[in-house]
Structures are given as C-alpha cells and as structure tokens.
Sequence to fold (339 residues):
Amino acid sequence: MNNSEYSICSEFGNFSIPCPADRPYILRGAIYTFLSISTIITIFGNLGIIISITHFQQLHSPTNFLILSMAATDLILGLIIMPYSTVRSVEKCWRFGKMFCKIHYSFDLMLSVISIFHLCSIAIDRYYAVCYPLHYPYKITIPVIKKMVLFCWSVPAIFAFGVVITNSHVSGISGYEQLVECFSLCPITFNKLWSLVMFFTCFFIPGSVMVGIYVKIYVVSQIHVKILNSVAGKTSNELISQISKKPDRKAAKTLGIVMGVFLSCWLPVFITVLLDPFLNFSTPEVLFDALNWLGYLNSTCNPLIYGFFYPWFRKALKYIIFGKVFQPESRAANVSESN
Fold:
C-alpha cells in the first residue's frame, strides 16, 4: 500500500484495474486443485461429525455437543469462506464486490474467534471431567453447554460484524479504500489498535487459558498415576495403560492434540496481524495469504484428527457411508469405544 499504487489508481478514475494474470496456468491449476481438495475435506469431514453426533443417541454427551458446535463452525467456514478465498488467492484479487467483501470478511473473522472460544469451552469441559470427575455430571450439564455455545457464537458475531461494518479495523489507514475500489482487493488489514485487540483478546488470552488448563490436566493425571501406583503396587506403565483407556483421559489427550494443531495453524497468522501495521504493512501479500490459509486448514485437520483418534467417529462414518443411518434402529446402535 504505497503512494505509487495510489497515484496509479487515481489515473483510472472510476474504473477498476483488471486483476493480474501473472501466474502460469499450470501453477494456478495446481493451487486451485489443492485448495479445492482442502475445502471438500473440510465440508464433508465436518458434515460427517455433525451427522454422527446428531444421529446416534449414544454420542449425545456434553463434550460431543461442544464438538458438534465446533464442527458446525468449520462446516460454515468450508461452505462460505474457503471457496471465495480460493478465488481471491489464485486470481490475486476480489471479484465479488465491495459489499460482499465486508460480509465475507465479517464471517471470516467471526468463525475464527468462534473456533477459539469453542476450544476454550472444550478445555473447561475436560478440566472438570478429569480433575473433578465426581462434580462433573452436576457442573457440566446440557443447559450449561447450551449457554456456553450461545456465548461462543453471539460474542464473536457481535464483535466481528461490529468491527468490520463500521470500518473500525482500518480507521486511520490511508489508501485502504483505493485498494478495495480501484485494485479490486479484499485485503485482511487491521490498524495498530485493532491488531493489538485482536491478538490479545481473540488469541493470546484464550490460548493461554487453554494451555494452562491442559497443563493442569496433565499434572492431575500424573498425580493419579502416582496414587494408584502406591495403592495398587503396580508398575507405572501398567497404570498409565489403565488410565489411558478411560474415556475422559483419552478425550482430554485427543482434545489437547486438537488444541495443539489449532495453535500451530493460527499462531503464525495472528502474529502477522499483530506485527504488520507496526511494520508499515510490509508483509508480502503471498506470505500473508499463505498464513491465512494455514489457519483455514485447521478446519480441515479437525475431522481428520477425530477420525484418527476417535473410534466412535470411524464406526459412525461407516454407518453413514453405507447408508445404515436410514435404518430406524440405527439411532440406538453401539458406536462408542469400549473401555
């Protein structure tokens, strides 16, 4: 966003500068193929999770309802964000108009924050399940889960649409409107104030809470191992094997991996969002776009993680693929993993 670009833009008057076509067709085709495959996996993988949890009665648990809500978030991302971002990334410009740019931008920001809030909620759920198992059925009930889900969706929605529709995120950035109007761009841009707010409120604070909770869960699990070892007189390996078979311990471990993947995917783009306005928006467009897609790919990875670590998802997926879910008795089928 330098002055030379603004002067070039002004020469075109009310006309938009055509989208650049400097990428070879083979490269464009390869990028389209990769991003399209990622989008398809995101859509159908998360759709499989949604159908599994909603259909099978055995999977109706507080934890799974949180996973269901997060899968819905990832599904929406795959349906309404990733396809348009694919075109923007390959064509290097925005072809869908200024108003839809704002809508797309709002949903993009909203769904990212919703994912973080869901992971915080899941971390809290696992904390009570592992650290306070006797209180868990009374603390984490279905009404409590509904309130958590409502919070996870409503607050990010108000935040995202409020910031983007009012243009608060680009206030004080000269030339932003020229980029949108003349160069047909829909850039991911935040001024210094909102880059700080975004990083700390939407990522660093909730991320730190999640890490702290999972560290606590790990410490408590190790304490349980030592206690059982001293009481039962068995080897630590045998006890760890027994504990790892318990559903709550295994779920905590798996969701910890989900959180780790999430942090790996989104940390680079949040750091870039934080630093870019302080570096005079000098981050290369290609790098910023690649890091943004790394964040999107978190929604692609989640159903793959579930499929690898959760036997219930693999069993439920077989019912879905072979059409057994249309059988009336399938709702009561045993798809949960054995202890």
